[in-house]
Design brief:
single chain; mainly alpha
Length: 158
Amino acid sequence: MRFTSIRTLVTCAAVGVLLAGGGQWLLTRLGEQAIVPPPSWSATLVIIGGAIVTLAWPVRRSVRSATTVALDPLYATRVVLLAKASALAGFALVGAALGLGLFFLTRPVVADDALWWVGAALIGALVLGVGGIIAERWCAYPPGGEDPPGPLLEGERT
């Protein structure tokens, strides 16, 4: 398994900056109201980031333990895929929050409330992205290429 690279995460953030900042600029040019992230956005992202780390904990315990407990390989695969997706989405949303923040900071009149909610969205997106990266790292076998010692899974033979 390959970990999500820093280059990919930075690319996702850059795309988020361009889409959110450009979209905000286009909306205001068309006479529409600027979008301000709702308070529920940051809270939801923090909850999802915590849930991903919680889901990855049994996989980490199984991989790192000398007395490995049986773990469903499909569960571990689903968790690592969810972790990768969360890391990518989290950093894309980090970029989107940065794009919104840059948009509001370049206005002649700065809306303080909008900046607070953009800052909260940035923190929530960081929690989601970093939680995804941590969960992804927890789901990997230790270096060396050998399976960790422990009981055989259902259906395995020596």
